Structure formats: structure tokens, C-alpha cells
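User: Fold both of these, please.

Assistant: Here is the first one.
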Amino acid sequence: MSATGLVACETLEPIARPTLESSENLYIAIDPDSAESWVLGKLYETVIQKRSRIAVVQLDDDLSHSPFDGLNDGSVDLIITCTGSLLEYVDPVKARALEAEYLEAVENGEAERNAGEWRDRTYAELLGSLPPQLAASDPSNATGCTGENELPQNIVPIYRKPTFVRKEREILNWVSG
């Protein structure tokens, strides 16, 4: 009787389904009003196409106001944004607290603007604030997104899980530098 129970339990074990998205096109949303967004989108598109699969840049008029809409509805697989501005969007309270701490450290000479420590702290707070269906590759040392807030604005790709297989996530990290 216990052997039957064991067999029944074994058949209920979850089985990983293959990720169908890994063979489909990747859609990269860019802000049509931002030359920087256009350049970054084309850069990621080119590298992904040369190393992985077809990538397509598409214009998204609402990207700056609602960056997750396309990722959530599945029409977009990747956005390229900045750590500080996206943290402000995802968790404004956490962003303001971190910004105040950062500005105090800069003012007291304890930190330099966009120093690695603050890039990493802003990135870590962003990762902890992302919805569970989204993930981020490593942040770039390059900065962008001026005028959002005073936090480090390191460029970071945000993607929809499980769209990118490991090799493609490594490509995102490579492009980010």
C-alpha cells in the first residue's frame, strides 16, 4: 500500500516545460522620442541577432510613462532603461530614501557621483523591487536618463521571464559591459 502511495506522489512531480519563447523573435521596446533609446535598442538588436536569434526594435510611445506595460502583456520582451529612474517608478519611497542617503554621502565627501558602490546599491534595490515575472541583466558602467532623480542612472536591460535563455542573458551582460 505504501508503494502505491509513493508511485502516486512521483507522478505528481512538476515537469519543466520547454521555453517556447527561446525560438521566437525578441521584441525590444524603445522610446521614439529618445535618441539614446534608439541607439541602445539598435545595439542590443544587432548583437542579439548576430549571436542568438531574430530581434526586432519596436517603438513604444508609452515607454517612459509605463515601462512595464509591454513586458506584462507579452508584446515586448526587453526594455533598456536606467536604474535610478526605474527604481523611482517601481518604488518611489525606496528611491527617495536611497537618494537622500546618496546625496548626503556625496555632500559629505564619502561618495563620488555614480561610484560603483552606489551603482550596485541602486541596482540591488531595483532588483528587489521588480515584479516576479521580470528580471534584469547586470547594469552597465555607462549612465543615461538625465533629470529623473539624483540616483545613479546606469543603463540596465529589463526582460520578461523566461524569454531569455542563459546564453542570451550572457549576451545582455556582455553588451551592458
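And the second sequence with its predicted structure:
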Amino acid sequence: MADKSDRSADQMDKELTNQLNKELTDHQRHESSAKDKRQRKVNPRLETIFSILLLILGSFLIAVSFNVFLVPLGIASGGVSGISILVNRMTGFPPAYMQWAINVPLFFLGLWLLGKRFALKTALGSFLLPLLVLLTSHFKPLTDNAMLASIYGGIGVGAGLGLVFRGRSSTGGLDLAAQLLHRYTGLRLGLAVACFDGVVIAAAGIIIAPENALYALVGLFATTKTIDFVQTGLAISKVAFIISDRPAAITEVVLHDLDRGLTQLDGRGGYTGEARTVLMVVVGRGEVSKLKQLVRAADRNAFVIISDTAEVLGEGFSLP
């Protein structure tokens, strides 16, 4: 009799889960359809404007960081900007003009070899960044400490590049040269970029001073980490995997009390071999405590794993 009662309870649990999932799917389908219609109407123009704004702001940050931190102390952390610093140290030639002198031929070479679509993506950045470097060249240095300059200069350049990349744009320069090397030699793109940066940093150690190459490496590290930080952002989400004997009860509180969707995965106990339902739910950092409270109230014996996610795309989170 007890077995029959347990089977009946399990059956009701499964039926409730299926009904909740059906309601959620219908709701999401309706919301997604309406959302897609809105996006088709407004997204292309708004995305273009947003991309240009990010390119302008990012290029301005790069230019200011370049002039107030890197140029005064000769910290050439790779790229066209690093080459322009080396040439400036040797000849006194203004960095902005040197950047144009490199970017313009590379742009037309990219237009010829890589095609119009790729080259046009870099056109504005290739001309805008040197212009902003020229306009901010009178800004005074903020420090005479090479280590501070390499760290803060790297952070500033990384923040600017991160904004540019978030807008799906480019500042041209040796990125174009790396694309060409990748296209015609098969060398991996990341390795091609590293090769160009390595040559510039090594040249800084020879032309300026060995210490400058070390400071340039610090700046390059700061730039890389800051780009990643800007790309993923501060809003780190959490993903929770919940294994419970009462999946329907937890599904209900997550859907209605937390107002989050979730996914049911088929699992199997490693020791018992029994089929189990695994619930996966993604929440914001501020919702973790409430999620744990709701799960504990629904099933005190639930097994919960919570971990960080660098980025989440989709409805309720970031746009793709």
C-alpha cells in the first residue's frame, strides 16, 4: 500500500512538473516572438549608433592613457602605438602622424586582400584613434614612476579596447597585419598578434632600455586582463545545479517566487544507478540567497551546486 502511495505521489510530481514546463515554454515562446519583432524594427540602427559611440569613447580612453602614461616614459607595449613611441624616441616624430603612416597603408592593403567588408569595419577606428592621440598630445603626464605608468596606462588602454571590441569595432593597426599573416601563412591569429607585440617590446628593450621592455610586458598584461574584464563586465551571474527528490516543488518556487526560468536535465545516481532529475537555473549574484532559501524550504535534503559564470546571453540576461 505504501509503495502504491509513493508511486502515486511520484506520478503527481511528474505531472505537475510537465504542466509547469509547458506553461513556461508557451510563455517564453510568446515573449520571444514579441521580442524578436521589436528587435527587428529597432536593433540595426541602434546597434550601429551604439557601436560608433563605444568606438569614440574607447578610442578617447586609449589616446588619453597613451599620452599621459605611456609616451612620457617610453613604454612601448606592442602594436602600432608601441612602434610610434619607438620612432618618437629615436627621431622626435609625433606619434599620431606615425600611426597614420602605418594605419593608412595597412587599411588599403586589407581592403585589397581581405575584402571591403572587413576593411570597412576598421576604417573609422584606423583614422579616429590617431586623430584623438593628436588632439590629446598636450595632456600632461600624471606620474614619473614607470611601474605606475605601465600599470595605469595598460588599464586605460585595455578599458578603451574593451569598449571598442564590445561595439564590434577595431582600431586597425597591427590587428590588420596579423589578419593578413593569418590568412596567407596559416599562423594562428592570437600567435600572429603575439609575434608582432613581441618584436615591438624587444625593440623597446634595445632602443630605449632593457627595463622598458619589462615595463612594457607589465603594461601588456594589464591591457589584456582589462579587456577581458570589460568584455565580461561586473555582473557575474551564478549557475545552480539542484538534485532533489522533489523537482516539481522546486520548479514551482523558482518559476513563481524567484521569477526565473530553469532547465530540467536527466541524471543518474552514480552509486544507486537510479534516474534523477537535475535542475539547472541561472540567477544574478543578488538572487543566490533567495534561491537557497526557497530550495531549502521546498526540500531540505536537496543537493545544490552553485558556481560562477563569466557571461550569460539570452532573455533576462545580456543580449547576444
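The chain is about 70% helix and 10% strand.
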